[in-house]
# Entry
Amino acid sequence: MYFPTYSHRSDPFALMRSMLRDFDTFGPSRTRQPVFPAVNIWQGDDAVAITAELPGVDSSDLEVSVNDNVLTISGRRTAPDAEDEAVWHRRERTHGEFSRSIRLPFEAEDDKVEARLQNGVLRVVVGMPEAQKPRRIAIKAA
Amino acid sequence: MAKDVTKSDKREADMPETTHGGRVFRPLADIVETGDGVQLMLEMPGVAPDDLEVTLENRVLTIRGRVHATAPEKLELVHAEYGEGDFERTFTMSDDFDPEKIEAALSDGVLTLTLPRAEAAKPRKIEVKAA
# Structure
């Protein structure tokens, strides 16, 4: 393996980071296609939020659905079109249909789900229904 | 939902560290060249039009986008598959493009830059005179 001489002399860890990155490409996580979209999950006492980066997805091509405790994000990314004689120098972005399901820690009610797509970032907030919130049990003295 | 981190396609940029300690990512790009010029499409989710900066200086095209962290109120991050940070990427352009004529459009987190070729840089046919 060949490592280029690093130009950032001021950063002693630059070479190490670049080596680790190269090893990453051989790891098991790289042999399969990365899951799309990647999600971040946020949890609180009475709600769960799921955020995902969906650049290039129009809100009309995106579907967010909830079935019991499973949230599904699905949609389509369309490939950019260009003239026939156009030359592609780089094609790093991916296109096509995608679908991902996430299990929620509780059963969601339709009116407690809110989805918002802004600047290519989807944010879904699922509120916990009152009936499923933990209740405090009063302890009776014997 | 356990606290773990899995890999996504998003990669950090090969750049010197930032002073504020934030991460800088490299936006994925599609670049297409036609007879009229070059078009770049870069994925920059989370960047608002006001937080975008595009410069062309000495043939170096720099694209920077600031991302404001999306932390929902009162909630704690329990599972992370992608990192958040600013976007930055530079390209060395082969031809002379006019910085005044660059068109930038941002929609759904994708920046589309259209660089028309300068008139002088368009190929001209040179007539060869017979001696």
User: Anything to note?
Assistant: The domain at 11-118 of chain B is CATH 2.60.40.790 (Immunoglobulin-like). The first strand of chain B starts at residue 11 and ends at 12.
